[in-house]
Design a protein that fits this description.
Elements lengths: L4 E3 L1 H9 L3 H7 L3 E4 H8 L5 H9 L5 E4 L6 H10 L12 H12 L3 E3 L3 H10 L3 E3 L1 H10 L5 H13 L9 H7 L1 H8 L6
Parallel strand pairs: 1-4, 2-3, 4-5
Helix pairs in contact: 2-8, 3-6, 5-6, 6-7
């Protein structure tokens, strides 16, 4: 998969909360986060573990993408954030809106767990999407981690407040992974 992947805050934080940034480094040559996501991660009330693990990611691995005021990305970002492009008026947080806008205008992929906010947009704008659960599965398939480790990380993500579709990685993989790939991706994942 050679398309750029634009992370929103919840997807990136799910790995940072459980000290699993190394999985992203092993799977991807780099990750791209909108400046809005960086700002959300660095706010004062973000747990220190998230900031510490973000800083541990190897230099050059995270590209912080600025959306300039006069750009098409900015117009798309603001329209998504305010729900103007939604048939239902669905608004998004700034990180999600920025990731969607960048993926849409750069033929990229959105990395998000927040299906409630982003699904309408990825479907209507024909954007591919990946989730933390899908990323864990790719790490298992590439022998970066075992299924047991994936399950431990998955459960830890839930314990840290991440909203994931099942109570265990095993249940996710058995019941939803294949469907997620068909629903969210046009090409084979990775």
């Amino acid at each position: 998969m050679n398309k750029p992947i634009f992370y929103d805050t919840d997807c990136l934080e799910s790995f940072l909360f459980v000290d699993a940034g190394h999985i992203l480094e092993d799977l991807f040559s780099k990750i791209i986060i909108p400046e809005q996501v960086y700002n959300e991660i660095m706010v004062e009330n973000t747990p220190p573990i998230v900031k510490t693990n973000f800083k541990k990611l190897k230099e050059g691995f995270v590209e912080i993408k600025e959306i300039t005021f006069t750009s098409k990305e900015y117009q798309a970002y603001k329209s998504i954030e305010k729900g103007f492009w939604s048939k239902t008026g669905q608004i998004c947080g700034s990180g999600e809106a920025a990731a969607i806008a960048l993926a849409h205008l750069n033929k990229g992929i959105v990395a998000s767990n927040n299906l409630r906010d982003v699904y309408e947009y990825v479907e209507s704008l024909d954007i591919e999407m990946i989730t933390s659960s899908m990323i864990l599965t790719q790490a298992v398939k590439k022998d970066i981690i075992s299924k047991n480790t994936a399950n431990s990380l998955y459960v830890s993500m839930i314990d840290k407040g991440m909203s994931l579709p099942y109570d265990s990685y095993y249940d996710y993989y058995d019941n939803l992974y294949e469907n997620d790939c068909k629903m969210f991706l046009k090409d084979d994942f990775l």
